[in-house]
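Hi there,

I know you've been waiting on this one. I reran it after we fixed the sequence typo, so this is the corrected version. Both the input and the resulting structure follow.
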Amino acid sequence: MRSGLDLANNLCVVIALRHVSLTLFYILVFLAPMCITILAAVFLNEKIGWRKAAAVIAGFAGVVIAVNPLGTSRQGDWIGVAACMVCVSCFSVNMVWSRVLTRTESPESLAFLSGIVMAVAGLMGMALHAESLNGQLFAGLFAMGAFCAAGSICFFLALKHTSASNVSQYHYTQLITGALVSYVVWRELPTMWMLLGGAIIVASGLYIAVLASRSG
């Protein structure tokens, strides 16, 4: 079931990236650390406190500002936004659940099972959209698999040694790299609302990380 959440998350990532810019995608999925903080407080008894609660509320406000629902300068549509919200839900539940599983399971076993589920789903998808395997495609698939495997193992190792809410904050580095890639490859510049909302989200997330490290 946990691997199924991984699969749903990855599928929605593909859908979202077809409908929103890369920078807006990262801003929206950064709602996950706020959701994880709430879920960890409810299911893992991790203390939240009024300071952390205020940071979570600020993060939600930052998402609303970044999406700019009443404006006309959005870099995406509601299909992409909805797909991002599914990503956030799957990722948040997955992280909190993985925090529990790492108490009894090894990071390698969790990453291996996720890989098996992804492989089976991928083979089923290939039956509908098959394409001849050439050198370039093989290299791309191999690199993607290697990066995903390494990231999954590091993810589970981190969860084994620190809190779920603390681990989630390090994903904010993707906002910088995502914005750079978006500009270099597609020449997409973030809007003023995206910059403002993103700044609020990152600030609130980093504040939560600081509180988590002090309490840990």
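Quick highlight: The chain has a mean pLDDT of 81.

Best,
R. S.
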